[in-house]
Amino acid sequence: MNRSPFFFLFFLFLIAFSCQKAPTPPDYIIQKSTVSDTAMVVSPHPLATEIGLQIMRDGGNAVDAIVGVQFALAVVYPRAGNIGGGGFMVYRSAEGQSAALDYREKAPSGASRDMYLDENGDVSPTRSRKGHLAVGVPGTVAGLLEAHQKYGSLSWERLVQPAIDLARTGFAITQAETNRLNSFQEQFREYIKPESPFIRDTFLLGHKLVQSDLALTLERIRDHGFDGFYAGKTADYIVEEMQRGEGLIHHQDLTDYRAVWREPIVQTYRDKYKMISMPPSSSGGVALGQLLSIVEAYPLSELGFHSVEAIHIMAEAERRVYADRARHLGDSDFYSVPIDSLLDENYLDTRMADFDVSSAGSSDDTEAGSFTLAKESFETTHTSVVDPLGNAAAITTTLNSNYGSKTFVHGAGFFLNNEMDDFSSKPGVPNQFGLVGAEANAIEPGKRMLSSMTPTIFEKDEALFMVIGAPGGSTIITAVFQVFVNVADFGLPLDQAVAAGRFHHQWLPDMIAIEKDQLSSDVIDSLQAMGHQFRTVNRMAVIKAIQVLPDGKLHGAGDPRNPDDDAKGY
Ligand code: DON
After folding, report:
1. Within this chain, do residues 372 and 243 fall inside the same structural domain, yes or no?
2. Distance from CA of residue 201 to its chain's centroid?
3. What is the pLDDT of residue 375?
4. DSSP secondary structure string for all residues of 44-94
5. How high is the pLDDT of residue 14?
6. Is 105 in the pocket of ligand 1 (CB under 6 A)?
7. Peptide bond into 282 cis (omega under 30)
8. What is the total count of domains within the chain?
9. N or C: which end of the chain has fewer CB within 10 A?
10. What is the number of the ligand 1 atom nearest to the C-alpha of 541?
11. Is 167 part of any domain?
């Protein structure tokens, strides 16, 4: 029998099938380390980076670029880039003025202290992490509006439009996104209707993700600003979605939401550096300030990068700082956070009084510090960009877990956060990052949950030096700390400082988390002999940083830990 016509047809079918099914793999150019003369954007996705750069080429400043990038990330980086979450921005103008913007999510008015406890008073492990009850009132759109109103120079419409275009025409998903979307299908199907663009049997590399509902939502935000999200159709969709589960967000929660300008945490390091970082409702700035202040007393550069001595000092500092975080840090609008006392040099000296150079401390014996309250300043409270004028902005935003609570606003096309898990549901009971808390971070209606996000800008000799931040839950603070110290004390070039393996102590559990294969076995053996215990994790926080080099050029570094991190400039 002559089989060739059959095979011919079969091959034709195969070709037609593959043309139809297999999308073109995206040909994004991703750069992890770039040096440029004029402006730089480091973001978690090349399409977003390009949008930020184009905004600056068109005359926009760092805040314009950040706004455009954040809206673009809501489309191309749905795991975390968002309009259904919240975040923080730290800004420094070319003239040296700084500002911090808090657009963290808030507990809905119907939230209550014990809302995640079961009938036995035990924390139900999933209700603060998945589903409608885990969702805090989103702050991102209010935050971006506020940032734009104060510092923006291009029109709001110009900044939102690229995200609308990406959502409407679609974009090819990267390998990392393909893998993530496939691995979350089962969880998505618990909350998301099959017609959503995020539900599919299999996502293939290069699949064109079109988000028509999200495009319409972004148009409402473009045309009506605050009311385009917190009122009208978008708000109706959010409230309807809440009612599909046991969600608590009502219209009033949305219309009441406000982003808040706060006084940044500012602190010097080794006389020449100045840290400008995020105050509560993030713990990031206070904790980073404490860490730097503690290690300033030790000659880290002499001890050497990843030396036993340096790791011992830094990990012991981290232990003490996270103990303080657990007890004293929370939303300063609700709880009197003793910021000045926590950053007081004399207090921080006492914290290391029991430090033993030759043996590990114990978290059982390390309680949060106590002090006589100093007079507090009561007015007190990531993509990295540097623009052609030298203005800098660091913005960290989140849905908390990947794709947040996995709930999706049907009709409006976006994921909602699960930020409520960042509250302390019960004193001493760890959240998803193993962080414990107490009164300071207990749930109250309208309160912001404590964050570890640490968008930070450093000056050196009063000039812009570094713009830095990261996602990574509780490891954000120690990652920003270590990357800065890697550059400032250990003299590593920024890209190596970012890529270098990290270690992390957060008081509880009493052990140092280390990234796999990143510390030599000799170093680990020596630290173990001192009493340190280790656990190995695949990777920790994902840094995006820019350093101003001595010749004034900008060095941007994305993190090899996220394949899509992209640092580009011109
Ligand atoms: O605000 C916080 O500290 C956390 N919700 C951040 C979550 C995060 O970084 C997730 N990334 N791994």
Report:
1. no
2. 30
3. 47
4. SSHHHHHHHHHHHHTT--HHHHHHHHHHHHHHH-TTT--SSSEEEEEEE-T
5. 36
6. no
7. no
8. 2
9. N
10. 12
11. yes
